[in-house]
Design brief:
Mean pLDDT is 74; it is low at 1-8 and 57-103. A hairpin with a 4-residue loop joins strand 4 and strand 5 (187-193). The relative contact order is 0.12. Strands 3-8-4-5-6-7 form a six-stranded antiparallel beta sheet. A two-stranded antiparallel ribbon has the order 1-2. It contains six helices and eight strands; from the N terminus they run αααββααβββββαβ. The protein has helices at 3-20, 26-77, 113-122, 139-151, 159-162, 214-219; strands at 132-133, 136-137, 167-169, 179-182, 187-193, 196-201, 205-210, 220-225.
């Protein structure tokens, strides 16, 4: 039994006993009433505090879960796809390498023929951290492959190295072949014109996305001219 209830019952008995015995000590009665009222309000306050704490814990838990869900969507399934601009493209069904079945952007979106050829060869290849082949490839390895095949230019392997290549340029200065970085330089793609870039997306594999997409606009970090 909680303390407030215990004192409430005890004081009630004390009050009744004082009446039965004929004791009419005003000081005792007033003290009895004061203590009774004090613990009554204390009990009410404790209930409110418990309710507030419970709601606070529940709200915090919900917020954390929502944040985790949102982060999950942003970091994995978001990689901002051009659903409105993308038409279905049936890739070659031959070959032994697994490809993602997605609505793939058409290579016609790429103004640079060399990059378009690279895209046609790699489109839909799955993303794999540390991967460098058509079994799976990550963003920096795809840039390394794309620049070597399209321009005969060798890039370092990681984004931590690629982020320092060439010179930094402003977003409005972008032209085909420039590197674009996102997520504090943890993701990289190559600009292909029309405010779009080609990259190895964590959710879509090798694909084309738009810089105007909300996610990419928010996580854009820098652009670099390497040619």
């Amino acid at each position: 039994m909680s303390s407030p209830y215990f004192f409430e019952i005890s004081l009630t008995k004390l009050h009744k006993n004082s009446i039965k015995t004929g004791e009419h000590n005003d000081f005792l009665i007033k003290s009895d009433q004061f203590i009774f009222i004090f613990f009554y309000y204390l009990k009410a306050m404790l209930k409110k505090i418990l309710i507030i704490v419970g709601l606070a814990v529940l709200t915090t838990a919900c917020s954390n879960n929502s944040g985790q869900a949102q982060n999950g969507m942003i970091s994995e399934s978001d990689d901002a796809e051009l659903t409105g601009l993308i038409a279905g493209l049936d890739g070659k069904k031959g070959g032994v390498y697994p490809k993602l079945r997605t609505n793939r952007p058409k290579s016609g979106l790429i103004g640079d023929k060399a990059l378009a050829q690279v895209y046609n060869e790699w489109v839909g290849t799955r993303y794999r951290m540390g991967g460098t082949s058509k079994h799976g490839i990550d963003c920096s390895a795809f840039m390394q492959t794309a620049f070597l095949d399209a321009y005969g230019m060798e890039l370092p392997r990681s984004t931590s190295e690629q982020r320092y290549l060439g010179r930094q340029i402003q977003k409005h200065e972008l032209r085909k072949g420039d590197l674009v970085f996102f997520r504090r330089n943890n993701h990289v793609g190559v600009y292909i014109g029309n405010n779009q870039f080609m990259h190895a997306s964590t959710s879509q594999g090798v694909t084309i996305s738009s810089l105007d997409e909300d996610y990419w606009s928010r996580t854009y970090t820098q652009s670099r001219r390497v040619m």
